[in-house]
Specification:
Blueprint (H helix, E strand, L loop, with lengths): L1 H11 L18 H15 L2 E5 L5 E5 L10 E6 L14 E3 L7 E4 L4 E3 L15 E3 L8 H19 L8 E6 L13 H4 L3 E7 L4 E3 L4 E10 L15 H11 L15 E9 L3 E10 L2 H22 L4 E9 L3 H4 L4 H11 L6 E2 L7 H7 L6 E3 L11 E3 H21 L2
Parallel strand pairs: 3-8, 3-9, 9-16, 10-15
Antiparallel strand pairs: 1-2, 2-8, 4-7, 5-6, 7-17, 10-16, 11-13, 11-14, 12-13
Helix pairs in contact: 1-3, 3-10, 8-10
């Protein structure tokens, strides 16, 4: 376990935060630092064909050690961390034999990981937890996944008695800003299927995710001197409020769960003259997803009719789709992962992702790609933590998948 802990810490202390508003690829130069570090490490542990391309995609191969033909499989994780919270100067805290109580992350700043509020933590009593110091995120999303893949490959190199087919791995940039699969070369990767190690709590096994779109609503007002504004001023801020109130009040992230979709207003900026609302739209059901987009468009039409002129405009762009459509015909790849978990006495938790992963885009690009737990909790913020034992067991699941796949194709 100490080896995994040290490897994980070496990764999370490298700042790899991505930037959503930068069209460059990758979106931040600092992602190259970890990519080059991993390039050297993969070569050192004995993987073949280690290649870091011009877009910061790092790939490598573990050759087959069996005579019979086995499908090439892959494991994928992402290098970048969320742009929502600082990933610089990460100072991890190690809590051995966790007692189930609150964890003081930062005494000086009075930042506490509340064990009642974040009650999932109770299942990890007696384990070793890795947390932040309350000033940054931790980076377990997805450096826990990278740690597990590298460690599993290293173990398989060192234990040739464990039989496996050819395994391909890839570490991608910019997953957190939705671009992680955009320049992924599926044909060159050569895998028949793959797994992203990018889930949360131990046991998660996911092959469904949201259908997703972005929506930008622009409200064009008219600004005149407020003392002479009667029947002349059109306050874009107040008009924007009418659009917000026109969507279902309970269909927002903080009031939905499971398969329930939502409209999420994540940014609002402007003034009397012009206001912009930025939404993300999500639903697991494709028809409901389409209806959500239509509802926003209909609301724009209705408000323009109300005001007697076209002051509202909307631009909707699809982002990704539910990978269940592509995984369902090849469910044996999910069954293999479930068997690999049960071999470690982990009961799979089948749940729909309330978000997306590189795997959703890759599945539609021709690489079916379910998502497996990496072990972390409370991603994208200062309360993030990961149990060391979860990373150890995720590593074993990867090894089991490799062995089970080889055995099934004898």
């Amino acid at each position: 376990m100490q080896h995994i802990l040290e490897r994980f810490i070496s990764y999370i202390t490298v700042d790899t935060q991505s930037e959503p508003n930068n069209p460059a690829f990758p979106s931040t130069e600092k992602q190259w630092v970890l990519a080059r570090m991993l390039e050297q490490e993969l070569t050192k542990i004995g993987l073949h064909n280690v290649q870091l391309d011009k877009n910061c995609y790092l790939t490598a191969t573990l050759p087959s050690n069996v005579a019979h033909t086995v499908p090439v499989i892959g494991f994928i994780a992402h290098i970048d961390t969320s742009p929502d919270f600082s990933g610089a100067n990460v100072n991890p805290q190690i809590h051995k034999n966790y007692d189930g109580k609150n964890i003081v992350l930062n005494k000086d700043l009075n930042i506490v990981l509340d064990a009642a509020y974040f009650d999932d933590i109770q299942q990890y009593k007696g384990q070793t937890l890795i947390t932040t110091d309350g000033t940054t995120l931790l980076g377990a999303d997805d450096k826990a996944g990278i740690t597990e893949i590298v460690t599993a490959m290293e173990y398989l190199v060192q234990h040739p008695e464990i039989k496996h087919g050819e395994i391909r791995i890839c570490f991608t940039p910019d997953e957190e800003v939705g671009k992680g699969a955009h320049k992924f070369d599926v044909a060159a990767f050569r895998a028949q299927w793959a797994y992203t190690m990018d889930g949360s709590q131990i046991g998660e096994l996911e092959y469904e995710n949201f259908n997703a779109a972005s929506a930008v609503v622009t409200v064009q007002g008219k600004n005149v001197h407020p003392g002479y504004a009667k029947n002349k001023m059109v306050n874009a801020l107040l008009c924007a409020q009418e659009f917000i109130n026109g969507l279902p009040a309970n269909e927002v992230p903080e009031k939905t769960t499971g398969y329930q979709g939502f409209y999420h207003l994540h940014d609002m900026h402007g003034d009397v003259e012009k206001t912009v609302l930025e939404y993300i739209v999500r639903d697991h059901d494709l028809e409901k997803f389409k209806e959500r987009k239509k509802q926003m468009q209909s609301l724009v039409l209705a408000l323009n009719q109300k005001f007697g002129e076209e002051i509202f405009t909307i631009i909707i762009k699809d982002q990704y789709f539910n990978m269940k459509e592509k995984i369902a015909p090849v469910m044996h790849i999910v069954d293999i992962a479930a068997e690999a978990m049960r071999a470690e006495n982990i009961e799979p938790i089948f749940k729909a992702i309330r978000g997306g992963t590189d795997g959703s885009q890759l599945s539609f690009m021709g690489l079916p790609c379910p998502n497996i737990f990496a072990g972390g909790h409370n991603f994208h913020g200062k309360y993030e933590y990961v149990p060391l034992e979860s990373m150890v067991r995720a590593t074993k699941v990867i090894i089991n998948i490799a062995e089970i796949t080889a055995n099934k194709y004898q």
